[in-house]
Amino acid sequence: MKRRKFLVSSLGLVLAVSCSVFANQTSKNIRAFAITKIFGDGIKLVAIALECEKILTLKDIKKDDFSVENRTISDVFISDEIGLKKQEKGKFIILLLSLEDKNLSLSKMILMSNSTIKANKTSKKPWVAGDKPASNLVFEEPKAKITYQGISYSTDSVKNLVADEFLQLVFQDRITNKTLRYNLYIPKNTKDKKLPLVLFMHDAGTTSEYHKATLYQGLGAIVWASPKEQEKRPCFVLAPQYDEIIVDDNSNASSMLETTINLINELVNKYNIDTKRIYATGQSGGCMMSIAMNIKYPNLFAASFLVAGQWDYKLVKPLANKKLFILVSADDLGAFPGQNLITKQLEKEGAKISRDIWDGRWGDSEYRFAFDKIISNNNPINYVVFKKDSVFLEGDSKQGASGHRNTWRIAYSIEPIREWIFEQIND
Q1: Full-prediction pTM beyond 0.85?
Q2: Most buried residue, 43, 71, 287, 406, by CB count within 10 Å?
């Protein structure tokens, strides 16, 4: 049977395909899809799906028939869907790409159209809540250019696992006169009973006019909406996309605090949301906004997961009666000393706090053991510090804010913390 050749490029990657199963097909009925997945450090191209007209089995393909220029194919298998599920037969050939390859990031910075802060390398002016930064984070969509028997064409579309399940919506707040882009995951079965809502707020580095930046930057939003998570803990997930600095280092919050609260109230009136199980979480600036919201609205959230953030410890008295899980790294030059001051102040206010030191290199079983240990104290506030040098990837720089950012690369992957959050209910 005559062999046919394909050429697929995605963000500079070239896929050369030679496989007899395509012998009787033309370039018009061969489709190729890029598949992305989101990890703690962002979205990556992880696979390519080739759609055939015929149903195939594993006997019809061989790994050696495929190659990807500048990428390593770790596996080739069959599926009946555009995804990463292995099956005995199907019409999709999935080329799984190695995550050990270099330069996998799809993120880049571009100028923000409505910036109130001009790009100036010599300026030392700190951000102020309400500022719109000079640049915003965006993500390139992986595209594939395919050549088959000398004919070239582009991929039909991209499948973004989990992230594609979120709706992109806009809230016009008549009270604050602010406009807020937001991403919303609606669970499958919302009529039978009221379900929790998780609010995730991103860091200042993800401030952007790009609607999906908060989804693509890491696990903070999408982890709650993954199929396995929804099977265990179904919930609504709200992920606002802020295009302004929402908090600053002087413990000020912008009017987006009120706009976000007003959005939550609108969603509660529209959907079957359990008001006794609304949870807040955020990383860095999003953590700070979570703290500010808990201070101003102490009865709104049943629990909060605070990741790599700080606040003026003299203002945190309302948190003494809250249920909190706080996570920072000892390598975080701001959040670590900041949370030390906060937790000491909360103890002065009568709060009961459990403390422990964890290792950012642990696996699931080690996190489970450590979690069971700290939670056995049955205190409403848990304060965990990743020990020094444990959050960095091998070969990464440990300078600047690396210890800060790497905290949330790990934080949202720790399942026992997510379990704890959902066990908390407002009285």
Answers
A1: yes
A2: 287
